[in-house]
Design goal:
The complex is a heterodimer of chains A (about 375) and B (about 525).
Chain A: E1 2-7, H1 25-33, H2 40-51, H3 54-57, E2 59-63, H4 69-74, E3 79-83, H5 91-102, E4 108-113, H6 115-127, E5 136-140, H7 154-167, E6 172-179, H8 182-186, E7 193-201, H9 219-231, E8 238-241, H10 245-254, E9 264-267, E10 272-274, H11 279-289, E11 293-297, E12 305-307, H12 316-322, E13 327-330, H13 333-337, E14 345-346, H14 351-355, E15 359-366, E16 369-375
Parallel strand pairs in A: 1-2, 1-4, 2-3, 4-5, 8-11, 11-13, 12-14, 13-15
Antiparallel strand pairs in A: 6-7, 8-9, 9-10, 15-16
Helix pairs in contact in A: 2-7, 5-6, 9-10
Chain B: H1 2-13, H2 46-49, H3 75-87, H4 110-117, H5 119-122, H6 134-151, E1 155-157, H7 163-180, E2 189-193, H8 199-207, E3 210-214, H9 224-230, E4 235-241, H10 253-262, E5 266-270, E6 290-294, H11 295-298, E7 311-315, E8 327-331, E9 334-338, H12 355-391, E10 411-414, H13 416-422, H14 426-433, E11 452-455, H15 463-482, H16 484-488, H17 514-522
Parallel strand pairs in B: 2-3, 2-4, 4-5, 5-6
Antiparallel strand pairs in B: 1-7, 6-7, 8-9, 10-11
Helix pairs in contact in B: 4-12, 6-12, 7-8, 12-15
The chains are: A alpha/beta (about 375), B alpha/beta (about 525).
């Protein structure tokens, strides 16, 4: 097995300092001044230890110095440094290293960092044209890890490497890469969005209950969910379809040219009314149409948020207009089972309104299949 | 004598070394030799030949264009072929078969096979006039009586050819019931649970219903609050197993039934897991309208690899008009098969069901008697709880949910702690078990319990048998820590190393017959 390793050497440095992240040169300076240390190297050591001997049999490809080579050498592993990096490294180096490594025919790209690193890795893998096929795993080393591409723990990442080396590559599923604007966050504004998808290997030690024959989020499963939901759509209603691969499958079934990462508005008969609409546009539309309003949403993997992450275009007033009966959640069963905390969550921006959704929501899990899933705000 | 004691004590302490036979046996179609025959049919005698060509009067559309492509083989080669295949399996009569949990792999007494093979049974034909088959009709009638007694229900049909057909029949009866009340259009949802028999959801869909699946609460019971959120005027029925595949008995089942009845839905009890309940708890008292038993599970008939079986459909008097036909009627000690009533769902399969299977089940039940059936369940529960007590002593083995509570007839265990510590998965443990001549099954998908193993000892096995199985589990768990590679590369003593399961999920590649295999894979050079 050939594995590429990209390390964000400064990942996690802003965490202990309460800086809500490590983006930006000024932040790094502030963190270093406060005595914070980067997290990546120690976490990599934990991972290599958990992996054990099989790590020796892996062909390692990485970038110079702190971006990978140092950690591999510290663990006593042979590695080829194929990406030259000038010190100190930049975010752009993560993107470049990911692109070069992805293009080398590796079986897995491993990165250490947080959400920002995941975003740069996605950019690089996308540049190489391999975002939809190359398995990628995040070693959690950042401050924020809203994305679904991370192992639960560095030990879990090591176990996963061992299993992949011994048993061959596992099937993969789509995993969301989330993006929080840290400057906004430091001002107290949570404005995350869905940045895109990477391919995450599905292995038992990584995600509880994740080892299903029908891989979570497989194309056939999404299609089954979408077809079942489309059959039940009411031609006279207005549907706001949120971001995600499952909801995108619905748009495809309806024959609508919608967006993967934005909110699109369609009528129940499949007419596209608005594409990648803003909050203001959606509210205008809902007010003007006077049709029953429905929200079609899919939870973020791991954390279970159906509103408030990546779909802030859907405002509290739209949620109120749709009401409990107008909220439709689409998700394959494995995604539900592997939610941390086991519940769906709603964070619309109006805490009082969110509370009204405590209880159970129907979730469409397959063709003419539903479950009732607990919602806890 | 001393030597014998040594051997006995050696046996107790160590696992059995087993090596499966390996024959490199081709598929029977590949063994065919043109012109080779197993039976030489005698020449037609001249007097018969004079009668002319009996087939000549058949319409051309009914005649084959080509002779059937059957393998051409001598008798002894056929015999060798199937004997070799049987040696390459780990069958119910070969191993301590407690690892196929939920399937209730109890011993099927051979004397009952002998009964079914007697000419008085084996030479009957289902088209014979009722007056000439009173014996088997009486057996069917009395077996129906037993099923009424065991379930508490009023009416029974033994026509379905297996458990899933019985579930299909039950759900078809649910639909017919709502149709009779003019509510079939409105009621389009069936509720089930994730730990219920998966055929419940599958058959509901086959009948045309949408399915709502309830997941367990933190204690492992079906989530009652979720059920209450799911029920509505659209609810046609609840179809549920109890105990579920966790082996945990849902003692609040009456509340589930009441919640569904309150909105006008029916309640169907899938008794696939009935082996711990005979003579102890009945569907009737829990308030169900319909239930079914698999005779091949609870009543000791062969599982037969999907071959002919019997699913017993039982219902209350109010649902009886919807039962599949033909129905058995008794008058003055004479038995008669009559068509189903006007509201009947019709035939679920041909004729009155698999009579040789019913005979086996009836013989098994009559050998035990009512008290004996209850003892079966008591021993099954005792065996299961002994086994759980011993298995939980193994480091890395857990029984998720309901801590400290006893289980009924099976347990869904979890090896997740062992997997976390060693990287060895439950599937790999199952493969390694084959090296010691036993077998176990993990769980249905998706794996809700991580690294699952489902074990159901039934009443058929002695304590020594159970200890042997437990010993294998303990041994493999030890290997996982001391020498994980030997587990991860298992099985070492089986003719087939590992099967790639992903093919089973791919309609382009799956092949359940030799010809489908040739068609899909052979021509593409992948065979």
């Amino acid at each position: 097995m050939k594995v590429g390793l990209v390390v964000n050497p400064l990942a996690g440095i802003g965490g202990p300092a309460g800086l809500k992240g490590s983006d930006g040169a000024a932040c790094v300076q502030a963190a270093l001044a406060s005595g914070s240390l980067p997290q990546a190297q120690a976490r990599l050591a934990t991972m290599f230890q958990a992996c054990g001997e099989p790590a020796q049999a892996i062909g390692w490809y990485t970038a110079d110095g702190d971006m990978g080579l140092n950690a591999l050498q510290a663990a006593g592993l042979q590695a080829s440094a194929v990406v030259p990096v000038a010190s100190p490294s930049q975010a752009s180096d993560t993107r470049r290293a990911s692109r070069i490594l992805a293009g080398m025919g590796i079986d897995l790209l491993l990165f250490a960092g947080g959400d920002g690193t995941a975003r740069d890795v996605l950019d690089g893998v996308r540049d190489a044209g391999l975002a939809a096929s190359l398995p990628v795993l995040g070693l959690p080393a950042g401050v924020k890890m809203q994305s679904a591409v991370f192992a639960n723990h560095p030990t879990a990442a090591g176990m996963l490497l061992r299993q992949l080396q011994q048993n061959g590559l596992a099937l993969c599923s789509d995993a969301e890469v989330m993006d929080l604007d840290e400057d906004e966050l430091r001002r107290g504004v949570i404005a995350p969005r869905l940045y895109g998808y990477l391919q995450l290997p599905q292995v038992p030690s990584l995600t509880q209950g994740g080892k299903a024959r029908h891989v979570s989020g497989s194309g056939a499963q999404r299609l089954a969910i979408a077809r079942g939901f489309a059959e039940d759509m009411d031609a006279d209603s207005l549907y706001l379809v949120g971001p995600g691969t499952t909801t995108q499958a619905l748009l495809a079934v309806l024959g609508v040219d919608g967006t993967l990462l934005g909110v699109d508005a369609v009528l129940g008969d499949g007419t596209l009314v608005a594409r990648n609409a803003t909050r203001f546009e959606l509210e205008e539309l809902a007010n003007a149409s006077r049709r029953p309003l429905h929200l079609v949403l899919s939870p973020i993997g791991g954390q279970g948020l159906v509103l408030g992450r990546g779909n802030q275009q859907i405002s509290p007033s739209l949620l109120r207009a749709a009401g409990r009966r107008g909220v439709h959640v689409l998700a394959p069963p494995d995604k539900l089972v592997s939610l941390r905390g086991g519940v769906l969550r709603i964070d619309s921006g109006d805490a009082q309104l969110d509370k009204e959704f405590n209880g159970y929501l129907p979730v469409t899990t397959g063709y003419r299949e539903q479950t009732m899933w607990p919602v806890s705000v | 004598m001393k030597t014998m004691e040594n051997i006995a004590s050696h046996r107790q302490q160590s696992v059995r070394r087993y090596h499966q036979a390996r024959w490199d046996e081709p598929v029977i179609f590949e063994l065919s030799q043109p012109g080779e025959r197993g039976i030489l049919v005698p020449e037609v005698e001249p007097a018969i030949a004079q009668a002319g060509q009996p087939l000549a009067g058949l319409p051309a559309s009914m005649l084959r264009q080509h002779p059937p492509a059957l393998p051409e083989m001598s008798q002894n080669r056929v015999l060798r072929h199937y004997l070799r295949l049987s040696q390459e399996t780990l069958g119910a009569d070969l191993n301590v078969d407690v690892g196929q949990g939920t399937c209730t792999m109890k011993y099927n007494p051979k004397i009952n096979d002998q009964l079914a093979r007697q000419p008085g049974m084996s030479e009957l034909h289902p088209r014979q006039p009722d007056s000439t088959v009173q014996g088997i009709l009486e057996v069917i009638g009395k077996l129906e009586g037993v099923m009424r007694e065991v379930s508490g229900m009023d009416a029974v049909s033994l026509q379905p050819r297996g458990g899933s057909q019985a579930i299909f029949a039950n759900i078809s009866m649910v639909r017919a019931w709502h149709e009779s009340r003019g509510e079939a259009g409105q009621r389009d949802e069936i509720i089930t649970t994730i730990f219920s028999h998966p055929s419940d959801a599958a058959c509901a869909k086959l009948v045309g219903y949408k399915v709502i699946t309830i997941y367990p609460d933190a204690d492992g019971y079906p989530d009652l609050a979720a059920l209450k959120a799911a029920v509505s005027p659209r609810t046609a029925a609840l179809v549920i197993t109890n105990p579920e595949d966790t082996g945990i008995f849902n003692s609040r089942i009456r509340e589930f039934v009441d919640a569904v009845h309150a909105v006008g839905g029916l309640c169907v009890y899938d008794q696939a897991n009935a082996n711990g309940l005979l003579g102890i708890a009945r569907a009737r008292e829990a308030g169900f309208d319909l239930c079914h038993f698999n005779l091949h599970k609870t009543f000791a008939t062969p599982h037969a690899c999907g071959g002919p079986a019997v699913g017993a459909v039982c219902c209350t008097a109010q649902l009886a008009p919807f039962l599949p036909g033909p129905l058995l009627r008794e008058q003055h000690g004479r038995y008669q098969l009559v068509k189903g009533g006007e509201q009947s769902i019709g035939k679920i399969s041909s004729f009155a069901g698999a009579a040789p299977i019913m005979l086996r089940a009836y013989a098994w039940i009559m050998n035990l008697g009512g008290e004996g059936l209850r003892t079966v369940s008591e021993i099954a529960v005792l065996n299961n709880n002994y086994m759980m007590h011993e298995l939980l002593k193994i480091d890395g083995m857990a029984a998720p949910y309901a801590p400290g509570k006893r289980r009924i007839e099976q347990v869904r265990y979890s090896w997740s702690a062992l997997t976390e510590a060693t990287g060895v998965t439950s599937e790999e443990i199952g493969l390694r078990a084959a090296d010691f001549g036993v077998h176990y099954w993990t769980s249905h998908h998706p794996y809700l319990v991580p690294e699952p193993a489902t074990i159901e000892p039934t009443e058929s096995y002695s304590r020594a048998d159970l200890d042997e199985f437990i010993g294998v589990m303990r041994h493999i768990a030890g290997e996982a820590r001391s020498n994980p590679d030997v587990v991860k590369t298992a099985p070492h003593n089986c003719p087939t190393h590992r099967v790639q399961g992903d093919v089973l999920d791919d309609p382009e590649r799956w092949a359940i017959t030799w010809r489908a295999y040739q068609r899909k894979l052979g021509e593409r050079g992948l065979a």
